[in-house]
Write a structure and sequence with these properties.
3 helices, binds 1-O-pyrophosphono-5-O-phosphono-alpha-D-ribofuranose, Rossmann fold, six-stranded mixed sheet, globular, binds hypoxanthine, binds magnesium ion, three-stranded antiparallel sheet, 9 strands, Hxn_phspho_trans, 176 residues, alpha/beta, 22% helix
Length: 176
């Protein structure tokens, strides 16, 4: 079967959900500012759209980690490709991620960030695949969509670096 992408969550639905998340975050952080950490590369589209929907003051930083390479299966080893530019000490930090799958990436990042003494640390993810979780004790504070166990692309998510630019969430078919 040739490789193709089937739509799972349409563009309009993603936009609507991100608007609601932005409103919720703005309420919860009222009177404070929020320091958004984008987990590159996958988190970049979500981060940009979410940040536009937050009405409290926002600052941003970027961390790049990788564990999937060109595969649909995690290597199990989280590798820092680029560290943050700014310290987290004393800041209200919100991690912005595209997906939690095994949970290894976020578990690694949360432990790493806790050591940097933020004032608070929360997590916002566009997608969650709960059936695939290996690291169980990750608390998701803001969730876009819980999805079934299928390899998804679009809105920042890739398969072998392809499809990140799709404006919707889709499922790759015809790959192992
Ligand atoms: O819960 P996990 O099993 O750890 O999987 C989730 C992580 O894997 C993907 O990133 P990847 O390592 O492929 O890097 P990328 O964001 O640059 O594509 C995805 O963007 C998440 O960061
Ligand atoms: O379903 C997925 N799609 C793309 N990248 C991923 N990284 C973990 N899970 C996924
Ligand atoms: Mg990623």
């Amino acid at each position: 079967m040739a490789e193709s992408v089937r739509e799972m969550i349409p563009e309009e639905e993603v936009a609507k959900r991100i608007k609601t998340l932005g409103e919720q975050i703005s309420k919860d952080y009222a009177g404070r500012s929020v320091h958004l950490i984008c987990v590159l590369k996958g988190g970049v589209f979500f981060m940009c759209e979410l940040a536009k929907r937050i009405t409290v003051p926002v600052s941003m930083d970027f961390m790049s980690v990788s564990s999937y390479g060109d595969d649909t299966k995690s290597s199990g080893v989280v590798r820092i490709v680029k560290d943050l530019d700014e310290p987290l000490e004393g800041k209200d930090v919100l991690i912005v991620e595209d997906i939690i799958d095994s949970g290894r990436t976020l578990s690694y990042l949360i432990e790493n960030f806790k050591d940097r003494k933020p004032k608070s640390l929360r997590l916002c993810t566009l997608l969650d695949k709960p059936e695939r979780r290996i690291v169980k004790d990750i608390k998701v504070d803001y969730l876009g969509f819980a999805i079934p166990d299928e390899f998804v692309v679009g809105y920042g998510l890739d398969y072998a670096q392809k499809y990140r630019n799709l404006p919707y969430i889709g499922v790759v078919e015809g790959v192992e």
